[in-house]
Write a structure and sequence with these properties.
Helix content: 55-70%
Order of helices and strands: HHHHHEEHHHHH
Number of helices: 10
Number of strands: 2
Radius of gyration: 21 Å
Structural class: mainly alpha
Length: about 220
C-alpha cells in the first residue's frame, strides 16, 4: 500500500493553528508569530545555521566514507542501484525544505513557512520520522487557511507524484467517496490537483460564494 505524503504532512500543519489560538490572546499569538518570522529571516541566524549544517554534513560524510570502504561491491550496488539509497536519503532530507520554499513562492498573505521534522508517538506513523512544513500564522484575518493547505497538497504531490496517494474510504460513515472529496465538498479540487492545476485558479471562482457566506454568518458571530 502506498504511503500518503499528505497523511504525513497534515498532522503538523493542522496542529499549529489549533494550538496557537486555544486560550491564548490574539495579540500574544501575533507577536510571537512575527518574532518567529523575523528570526527566520535574520541573515545572522541563517548564516550560523548554514555553518552548523555544513559542519554536520562534513562530519557525516567522513563517517559515511569510512563505512563505505568496508562494504563489498555487491552491497554498494544494492544500496545505490536496487534500493536507491542515495535518492531516498536526498528526498527525505530535502523534501521538507523544497516544500517550504514552494509555499513561500506562493506569497500567501498572513503566514510564513519553515521545514519541520517530527516523530509521531501514536497513530499510523508512530515512531517514524516524518518531514513536512510548519505554518507560522502572523495575521489570521488575511491568512487563507483552506487555500493554503490545498496548495500544500498540490506541491507535495508535485514533489513525488508516484508515491503520493489519496486516502481511500471508508471515512466516517461513507464507504464510496474519497475522504478528500468529502472534506472539500466536491471532487473538482482533487481532479484539478491531479491535473497539475494550481488551487489558486479554483480559488478565483470562490470569491463570490465566500462573500455571500460571510454575510449570512455575520449575525451568528459572538465576537
Amino acid at each position: 500500500m502506498k504511503r500518503s505524503l499528505a497523511g504525513m504532512i497534515f498532522p503538523v500543519l493542522l496542529m499549529f493553528p489549533l494550538v496557537a489560538f486555544a486560550g491564548v490572546p490574539l495579540d500574544t499569538v501575533k507577536a510571537n508569530a512575527n518574532d518567529v518570522l523575523n528570526a527566520l529571516r535574520d541573515p545572522k541566524l541563517q548564516g550560523e545555521a548554514g555553518k552548523k549544517v555544513k559542519e554536520a554534513q562534513k562530519a557525516h560524510d567522513a563517517k559515511v566514507a569510512a563505512k563505505y570502504r568496508q562494504l563489498a561491491e555487491t552491497e554498494i550496488k544494492t544500496l545505490v542501484v536496487e534500493d536507491k539509497w542515495l535518492a531516498t536519503l536526498a528526498a527525505s532530507v530535502l523534501g521538507d525544505v523544497t516544500l517550504a520554499r514552494a509555499l513561500d513562492r506562493e506569497r500567501i498573505p498572513g503566514a510564513g513557512f519553515r521545514a519541520a521534522a517530527f516523530t509521531p508517538t501514536f497513530h499510523k506513523h508512530a515512531g517514524q520520522l516524518c518531514h513536512g512544513v510548519q505554518v507560522h500564522v502572523s495575521d489570521r484575518r488575511r491568512f487563507p487557511a483552506f487555500l493554503t493547505y490545498l496548495l500544500l497538497v498540490h506541491h507535495a504531490r508535485r514533489q513525488d507524484p508516484e508515491r503520493f496517494a489519496w486516502r481511500d474510504p471508508p471515512y466516517e460513515y461513507e464507504y464510496v467517496k474519497l475522504p478528500f472529496d468529502i472534506l472539500c465538498g466536491t471532487n473538482r479540487v482533487r481532479k484539478s490537483i491531479e491535473a497539475g492545476v494550481s488551487p489558486k485558479r479554483l480559488a478565483a471562482g470562490w470569491k463570490r460564494e465566500s462573500e455571500a457566506f460571510r454575510k449570512r454568518r455575520a449575525k451568528y458571530l459572538l465576537y
